[in-house]
Amino acid sequence: MALNRKIAYIDLTSAAIETKPIPLQMRRKYLGGRGLDAYLLYNHTEAGVDPLSPGNALLISAGILGATLASATARTHICAKSPLTGFFGS
Fold first, then answer.
1. InterPro entries of this UniProt entry (predicted)?
2. Model confidence over 21-73: pLDDT tens digits?
3. Which CATH number covers residue 26?
């Protein structure tokens, strides 16, 4: 499993980039891909934020089997608060 990678936090307003390792507890609990995206979106987006504002987080991640030799597993997840529903959009 290739979930020992880092998370890159990129602030498009200030052009700041910060990388942090994914904690082991988070890797085990959310398994990467959509689960990790949902966790990060919940924790990095303020309640009531406009989906089209700079305060909305945009997450791009690989699926859980993305870095393995398994066939047909090249999956990319793009996640943010949806402007259509105002909820989790993937």
1. Ald_Fedxn_OxRdtase_N, Ald_Fedxn_OxRdtase_N_sf, W-dependent_AOR
2. 988 888 888 877 788 888 888 888 888 899 998 888 898 888 777 767 777 77
3. 3.60.9.10
Q: Is residue 56 part of a domain?
A: yes
Q: Which run of H or of E encompasses 38?
A: helix 33-44
Number of domains comprising the chain = 1
**Sheet with 58-62: strands ordered across:** 58-62, 76-81, 88-89
Using CA atoms, how far apart are residues 30 and 9, in angstroms rounded to an integer?
18
Evaluate whether residue 1 is within a structural domain.
no
- CA pair distance 64, 48, nearest whole angstrom: 30
What is the three-class DSSP state of 77? Answer: strand
